[in-house]
Amino acid sequence: xxxSFSSHFSVSPAQLLSVFTSELLMEKRAKKLNIADYSYETxxxxxxxxxxxxxxxxxxxxxxxxxxxxxxxxxICTETNxxxxxxxxxxxxxxxxxxxxxxxxxTIQINALADNSSELAYTGNxxxxxxxxxxxxxxxxxxxxxxVFSEDxxxxxxxxxxxxxxx
Length: 167
Fold this sequence. Notes:
This protein has one domain (about 1-165): Naphthalene 1,2-dioxygenase Alpha Subunit, Chain A, domain 1 (Alpha-Beta Complex), CATH 3.90.380. About 30% of the residues lie in helices and about 40% in strands. The protein has 3 helices and 7 strands, in the order E-H-H-E-E-E-E-E-E-H. The longest helix is centred in the last third of the chain and has 33 residues, at about 135-165. The radius of gyration is 17 Å and the shape is globular.
C-alpha cells in the first residue's frame, strides 16, 4: 500500500538535513518510544550523509495482536545515504525488519522552497506478507503514519529551535 507525507520547515535544506541525520534526533526518537536498545552511526562527507540506525523493540512493546507473529520482539535497521540534488537532498532508505513478514520501500527528500525554507517529503510502499490479514495490516499501518510523521516532525522542530537559540 502506497503512502506519502510531507511537511514544511523554516530552515534551509542543509540545516534540516543536519538535524534529520543527527544522533540527537535518534536519541529523542528512542526516548519517546521507551527504547533503550538502539545504536546510531553517521558519516558526513561533502555532498552526502550516510547513517545507520538500529533499534530492538522488545516483545512487551509489540502490540498484543502482533505478538503471535513476533514473540521475541522486532529488530529494525534503517540505512540512509542522503546525496545532494539540484533542489536539496534525497535518499532511498534501506529498511530491514527482522522477524516480520513485511517490506518497506521509502524515499525521503529534503527540498528547498522559494522562501529559504524546506519541505521534508516521504513517499513509499509497505507490503505485509501475512495470508488473509496482510492487506488489513497494511491499511492499519498506513493509517497511523501521519501521526508517526507528525510526532517525528515535532521532535525535529524541538532540535531546530535549540539550534536557533544557540546561534
